C-alpha cells in the first residue's frame, strides 16, 4: 500500500503546475470574456485551442490513457495527482490536456474493446483532439442507475442494427465537433439482467439522429464544453460492425468504462476543493469586516480546518483506490470506487460552499470560479449513479461480511 | 401569541391558490419557452404582463403594503401566508402580484419616508406596475454587512448632491423599465457610525450613471426579472430634494426597509420548500428503481419526514415574527427577524436539495423548478447579511441576558 | 392557533420559578451528595421528600392531570410551559411536583380507564405520592416499537388472568415504594393486529414476579428515581378485575397513554435545552483561554445562536401540538406529536453537547448537570419509539397527501 | 508514503486477533460481572490480571514502546494496526497488553527523559505491570489547553522542590496500585511562555498529597481502570532529583508525550468504530420490525455505508500520520496529529451512535459495549485538547500557507 509519488509523477506535477500558473489560470478570464462575447452558446472559445496546442507541445497530452500504444502509459496511481491538478481549473485544464470526460472514457473504451477499424476511424482523431464524442447511456424516462430499465432498443436487421430511443445528459454532444455517439441499448430484453445490453457507435450525421436541446445545470449550459444534450434516435440504421464488443456485452463494457471515469471525477474534485480552499484562505486574509479580517473569526477557522482534514482524508482514499485498481484491478477495487464516489463530491461541495460564503456576492457570481465548481460537485452527487445507490450497494457488501453467525 | 389565519387571510389564500392553479403553474413552461426564445436576455417575457393583468383584476395586487392609502392594508401576519403561497412559483407569482423585491421595499420606503413629490413621481407608477426600481446598497470592494464600510459618497454641492461610487447586486436594474435607483452613500464620514449614511433617489437616465453588466447567480442571469447589476456612479448630480429623509438618516431607513424585506423573503422560502416537498413526494411515488418506487426506500422517507418537521418549525417562527412585528414593531422583533433569516434559507436549501436528489438529472436541469429554487435559497444565505453576521449578533444578545453573575 | 400564556399559566410559572430558584437548584448539590453517600443505589435521597412537601404546600402538585376530579385541571397548553420549567432540573423538579414519568402516565390511565376500585386502590395513593408505579411494555427480545411483536401472554384462567413474560426498561420499578405494575401483554394472539393486546394491573408482591436487575443508561443507574428494571413474570396470577378496560383494548389504551407522555417529555426537553444554554452562556462569559473569554470566539457564538433558534422553533412546535391536543384531541394531533418526538430530543442533545464542549472536563463530570441532561435527551431518541419509526410513519402520511395524480 | 503492513505487523495482528477472540471478548461479561459484584468501586477485577498474564506469555506486551531497550521496538506504523485491534475491547485489551494510557505516555517519558535512577525506580516496575502511574496536567480552574494558564507551582527550596496546586482528570490515580504522579507545574512564571513549566515525579505517599475524589464521565467512574482523580498538592516536598529533564523543559516534554498519546487514542478509536459497525451489522441482520429485518431499511444501509467510508478515511489518515512520525518525527507530523485528533473521535462517536440507535434500549445499557464506547469517543473530543483548539491551530497553519500575495 504505497501511495508515494514516484519520480515521473513528481516531474509531471511540476510541469503541469508550471503550465497552470503560466497559461491556464491567466486564461480563465479570457475564456469567460470569449464565452460572454460569443453569439453562439455552443461555440468553442479560441483560447481553448491555444491551450491545447501549448499542452501538447509540453508533452502534457493524453495523460489519462494507461495504454502505451495510444497514451502516456501512466498507472492510475501516477495519473491521480495529475488529474487532481487539472481539477483546479476544471473548465480549461482537462480539455487542454485532452483529458476531459466523456472523451477519455470513450477513448479507453475504443482502445480496449474497439476493433482495428473502429480505432482507426474514431480513436485516432479523438487522441489527436480533432473530433469529440459523446456517451449516450442515461434516459429521461427511467432510473438509469438501474441498467435493466434502459428502454433504447438496438435491433439486428440484415447487415446492420437499428437504434431507437431517447437519451439525455449526453455530455459534449452540443459541440458541432462531436462526431460520434457511443450508445447503450438493449439487443435482447429477454436475456439475463446484465446480458441484455449492447454498445454501438452511431456517427452523428446518421439519418434519424436528432439532437433536440441542451440541458442546463443550475443555470449553466456548459456550452463551451459541448453542453449536455437530449437526443432522439429514430430508426437509426448503422452497419453491424459498429457494435463495440459482442452482443450482450454492453453492461460489462459500461462497468469497465465507469470505474476509471468515476475515479477521474474524484481526482479532479480533490483539485476543485483545493482550489476553493486556497481562494477561501486568500479571501479571508484580505477581507475586513467589523474591524477585523474574516480570518480572525472563529467560525471561519473552523471551516478552514474542517476543509483541510476532509480533503486530506478524501485524497488518501482516492489514492488507495488508484493503487488497488493498479494492483487488483477495477473489479477488486469496486467497493473503494463506490466509497470515493460517495465521499468526494459531498466533500468538495462542502468545502466550496464555505468558500462561496466567505466571498459573499462574489462567490455566487461569475467573478470567481466558485459557483461553477460547486455546480460540478453537486452534479456529481447524481452523475454516474446517485449517492444513495452507491451507499445501498456498499452497505449490502458490508452486511454480507457479518452474515455468518457471530 | 395568536397565529391563526383570520377570515380575510383565509379568503385571500383561497383566491390566490385558485390563481396559482389556474394561471401561474400553467404559465411556468410558457415563461421558460419565452425566455429561451428571446434574443435579449433582459427582455420581459410577455406572459408576465398577462399574469399581472389577471392578478390585478382579481384584487391580488400590492398585497404586501400595510399602508392602506397605497396598498392592501394587510398586517404582516395576514400577508405572511399569502407571501408563502407566492413563493411556490417565485419567478412568476410575486411579480405578477406586484409584490416582488426590490420594488416592494422601495415602495414601502417611499410610502413611509418619501416626500409628497417623491411619492407622486415614483411611488404611484411603481404601485401601478408601470416602472421598476432598484436598491443600491451593496458594494464590490467592502463587506457590505458592515454599513460603516460603505465607500460611495453623496456630497452636497449647491442645490444638489453629487453621487460617486460603485454598487453591485442592484437587483432589477438590468430591466429597461427600471427607472429609479435608491442609492445609499455617505454624506458625512466623520459622523457617529450610524449617522454617516444617507439615502438618495437617482433617476436611471442621470448623466454619470453607467449600468456596467449583469451578475450571474450560479448560472442564472435572472434576466427576465431585471438581473443583478453592477453600476458606476461617476459625479452623478441630482437635485437636493431627491434625498430620502434627512442627511444621516440612511442607516435607519435601510434598517426599516430591511425588516419587512427579510420576513418577505422568509415567507416565500417557506412556500419554495413546500413546493419542493410536493414535487419530491410526487416524484418518489411514481419513480421506480430496482423494482420498487423510490417512496418505499427508507432514506427517502427520512427526507420527507425531516422536510416536513423543518418546514413546520420554520413557518411557526416566521408567523411568530410577523405577529411580533405587528404588535411590538420591527425593532422589538429584531432578534426574531434575525432568527428567521438564519433558519429559513438553510431549511429551504436542505429540502430543495433532497427534492433535486430524488429527481436525478431532471432536478438540476430546466425541466423542474428545483434548481432555480435552490439557487434562490442559497443566495439568501448571503443576501441581506450573511448567516454568520446574524448569528454573531443574535448570540451577542443572548450572552447579554446572562451577563449578570449567576 | 393562539399559544399565548393565560393568566393562570403566568401565575403558576412565576410560582414555579420561585420554587426552582429558592428550593430546587440549591437542592441539586444536596441531592448529589446524598446519592453519593447512600449505601443502597435504589434508596431515595431524603431531599426529595422535603421538596415534595414544599411543592405540595405551594399548590404545585399534580399539575399534569387535566382531570379536575384528581388533578390541577390544566389544559395541555397551560401545562406545557410549566413542564418546560420542571425540565430545567429534571432529576428533582418533576418528582417534587408529583409530575414524573411513568407515574403521570399511569395516573392518567387509571383516571381515564380504571374502575372505581382500581382508582381507589392505586390512583389515590399515587396522587398522594405515597406509592409509585411502573409501566411494563418494552421487552428485551422484540422490536417493541412494533406492538404486534409483544410476546408476554395474559391468559384467562377461571376468575383470574395468568401473566407470563419478560419486560425491561420498566422505569421506577427498582424503587421499593413501587407497588404496582401496569403490564401490557397479549390476550388473543389471533385477533386483528391492534386488538390482540390487553393491559392489566399486577401488584409488585404477587407470587411469580421477579425484579431481576436494574439497567444502566450510559453508566447511570437512575437509582434514586427507581431505575429501569428487567422483570420476569412467571405464571403470575391476578384477579380478573385487575384488567384495565376490556380485553383487546391494550393497544388503544397504550396509544392514549403515549400521546400525553410524549409531549410531556418534549416539554421538559425544551427546559433542559434552556438550562444547558444558560450554563453555556455563563461559562463562556467567564472562562478565559488564549487571552480572551470563550464568548468572544466565533464558533462559540455560532453555537449560541444556533441553540437559540433551534429551541425557539421546537418550543413553538410543542405549543402548537399542545393546542391541537386541546382542540382536536390526541388523535387529531397524531402527526404533530410524532413531529415533536422527532425534533425535540435531537435538538436538546445538540444544545447540551455544545454546552458540554464549552465546559471541558467539567461538562462530562458530576460537577454540572450537563452529562445527565445529555443522557436523558439521547435516551429519548429511543424511548417511546425510535426516531426512525416516527419518521417513517410521518412520511407515510405526507406521501398520502400527494398520492392523487398531480 | 507506504502504509502497508509488513510481515511482523501481520504476524502480530494474527496473534492479537487470536488473543481477542479466545480470551478478551469472552472476558467482557466476566469483567462486567466482577465489577458489579465488587464492593469497592476502585478495585481491579481479577480477570484483568489473568488476561495480562496470558498476554505476556504470548509476547503481546509493551508493544507500544519503540525503545528496543524496554519495549517491543515497533515503529508507530507497525504499532498502529495493533493498537487499533486493542480498541475493539478498550476496557480490557490495552490494559491486558500493558499498553493503556496514561502509563504508556509515562513510560515513554521516563524512557526518553528520565535519569537512570528514575528509570530504575519507576520505569522498570511500570514495564512489568507491577505499579501504575498518573499524569497530572489538567487543572479545574483554568483552560488547560492553554499551558500558560497552569496555576500549580513547583518551587525550588534547598535540595528539593515544593509542589502546590490542584489537579483533576488524573486518570488511573484512584487505583491503589498507582504509585507515582508525573506533575506539571510552573517553576518560573516570568520566563518565556513555553519555558515556565517543569515536570516532576511525586510518589503517591508523599505528605501533602490528597486524592480527593473520583470524577465521573457521563455516569461511569471508570473505577476498574483507576478512575479519574481530583488531587490536592499542598506543600508537597520532593527531592530535586525528581525533576524530569531540566527546569523549564516541562512544556516541551508534555508536547513530546502528547504526540504518541494522541495517535494511540486515534488508533484505538478506529478499532472502537469497527467494533460498533460489526455489532450494528449483526444486530440489523437479526432484528425484525414491521415484518422485515432492520437491515433491509434504507436508512440503516445509509448508516452502514457512511460508517464504512468514514472509518476507511480516518484509518488512512492515522496511518499516514504514523508514517510521518516515523519518517519526519513528531514535530514534522504536528499538523497531521492535530488532523486525526479532530477527525477520529467525531467519526467514532458518529458510528457508535448509529450502532446504539439500531440496538434500541440495549444500546444504551450495560448489555452491549456500545454506551461505554460512545463515552470514550465523546470524552476524546475534549481530552488532550478540545476539537476547537486543534481546529483553530490547524487553520492558522493553513492560512499561513497562503499569506503571500496571490
Automatic annotation (TrEMBL), chains A, B, C, D:
SUPFAM superfamilies attached to this UniProt entry: Acyl-CoA dehydrogenase C-terminal domain-like, Acyl-CoA dehydrogenase NM domain-like
One of the record's GO molecular function terms: flavin adenine dinucleotide binding
Domain spans labelled Acyl-CoA dehydrogenase/oxidase N-terminal: 8-130
InterPro entries: Acyl-CoA_dehydrogenase, Acyl-CoA_Oxase/DH_mid-dom, Acyl-CoA_Oxase/DH_mid-dom_sf, AcylCo_DH-like_C, AcylCo_DH/oxidase_C, AcylCoA_DH/ox_N, AcylCoA_DH/ox_N_sf, AcylCoA_DH/oxidase_NM_dom_sf
GO CC terms, sorted: cytoplasm
Gene Ontology biological process terms from the UniProt entry: fatty acid beta-oxidation using acyl-CoA dehydrogenase
Cofactor(s) in the UniProt record: FAD
Domain Acyl-CoA oxidase/dehydrogenase middle residue range list: 134-236
UniProt entry keywords in alphabetical sequence: FAD, Flavoprotein, Oxidoreductase
Domain Acyl-CoA dehydrogenase/oxidase C-terminal per the UniProt entry, residue ranges: 248-397
Subunit structure: Homodimer.
The family this protein is said to belong to: Belongs to the acyl-CoA dehydrogenase family.
Full protein name: Acyl-CoA dehydrogenase
